[in-house]
Here is the input.
Amino acid sequence: MAKFHFEKGHMVPVPSHSIIPERDLGSAPVLECSHLGIQFGGLKAVDDFNLTIGRTEIAGLIGPNGAGKTTVFNLLTKVYQPTMGTILLNGQDTSGKTTAQINRMGIARTFQNIRLFNNLSVEDNVKIGLHNHNRYSMASGVLRLPSYWKQEKAAHERAMELLSIFHMEDLANHQAGSLPYGAQRRLEIVRALATDPSLLLLDEPAAGMNPSETAELMENIVKIRDTFQIAVMLIEHDMNLVMGICEGICVLNFGRVIAKGTSKEIQENPAVIEAYLGRRKEG
Amino acid sequence: MKKRSMSPASRSAFINYGIVIVAYVVIQILLGQGALSNTLQSLLVPVCCYIVMAVSLNLTVGVLGELSLGHAGFMSLGAFSGIIVSFALQDVITLAPLRLVIAIVVGAIIGGIGGVLIGVPVLRLRGDYLAIVTLAFGEIIKNVIMVLYVGLDEEGLHFATSQSNLKMAYEGVAIIKGPMGAVGVTRLATFTAGFILVLVTLIIVQNLVNSRSGRAILALRDNRIAAESVGISVTKYKLMAFVTSAALAGAAGALFGLNYSSTMATRFDFNTSILILVFVVLGGLGSIRGSMIAAALLYILPEMLRSFAISEYRMLIYAIILILVMLFTNNPKLKELIAKIVPKGKKKGGEVNG
Here is the structure.
């Protein structure tokens, strides 16, 4: 198999006990979580979560099943309101914001169980992602004023351009729900990118993909990061993908961070090995 | 692949305009030849009103995906405010069509305000609250108008809850008399007005659906969480669809009210709301063309049946039809059969198939 080559950035520590790529030191981090947590009744699903992500970093969030990874995504996007801690997005506090506002502030995401607009066309799915970027009023839409035609044309062109990232232009008129599984996952990423985020959250992007599809996905994630100059944070169980492209990796177990570091450091960390494989019986 | 100059959605929209215009021309020719019976002629305006009602309810139920059981309440608001306005302007504006237009616009505004009042608190909630609240709203409007007395004299409009409280000058006229409803209404509505209102409704609904706002509404219907995740404000677009729907119902109500010399509040009861819902469900949720056709056919047929002995069972027959359609549309075997008959190509991107 032709090995996909990717040069990871050199990671340096920052004050919040995280590491970010050296190239991102000059600009403010895209995301800073401090003491983030949520409690459901007596259960602390996520507790004392601290993480800083650099402006163009590809970060990984891993952990055994039920560790609270998706909950972290739901906290970041305010699907759940955190009960503890703060989230700074591009330096701005996000407390009290709604999911929609968070998206406008710069976080876009995909879902573990794909959530497309199944009855709409592929192109419309992307155009809905462009919702806040073509701004004509309801009246100009109903009366078909010039701003409608101009912006609809621009939206169509932009949608096609975004679909071309994954070579999906030919599928534009297909119904999103009728696409094969892999294409649906890719469409979700395109739709998220359409909102022009500064941080892209991918929840198990490689789930259900075969090794060659996964390899292609890895290339595409790097390509997206390079083209759009955004940060990517992904949850993934496929360790080839995580170790291959994630610069900083955060390991979660029982809602708490048990390790942070580069892929090499994570692989050698005894706490991580124990979380995944269990403790070795001595003697 | 052949290049199309028009998107499937706009082509479908233009077919709908075509159907309405052709129907109008054909009926005008038939009217000219005297081929329509008096009964049928008297149905022309109400049919237009019910088409507008069905298409507008489809915006809430089919496009937005929220159940509304009080659409007739908005019609009622429009009907009585339209009647009051046309009465009040009788001496100021002598041109009947202009007065009708103003009455319809006022009806739409009042209907829209009703929509805002209901939508703002209720559409924030998830679940079936809208159905419950609109159901109550329809009944409340009916009961309020049942005890409402409105009179007009040179001082202006008087509102009261009994005839004696109106305190009008001797020559004042009572427009709405509580349980008797509006009486002595000048019948301004014409078939042409109905036709124009249907066309305007189609333009508003179809252009709305095929725009940025409409896509946001469809996105909310398909997957609320995903829609929020791409920055779509839930309450704003739910409200937009619901208020537009209510305003159009108000406009239809104004035309309906001005088609009869007297109108009672009980005309716009729960049964009427359900009747309109039946049109929408039978025509197909989200299908504008289906709503149009179902409204026209299902409104004319029972009215024709009125002359027969089974007229008392009209609502019973409707209930049975509604249940049967619900059963059949949820039948997987039947769906398979339909999928086999309908060519696959037609299904592509068919979010609003009419």
Q: What stands out?
A: Residues 345-354 of chain B have pLDDT under 50 and may be disordered. The first helix of chain B runs from residue 8 to 32. The radius of gyration of chain B is 21 Å. The longest strand of chain B covers residues 149-153.
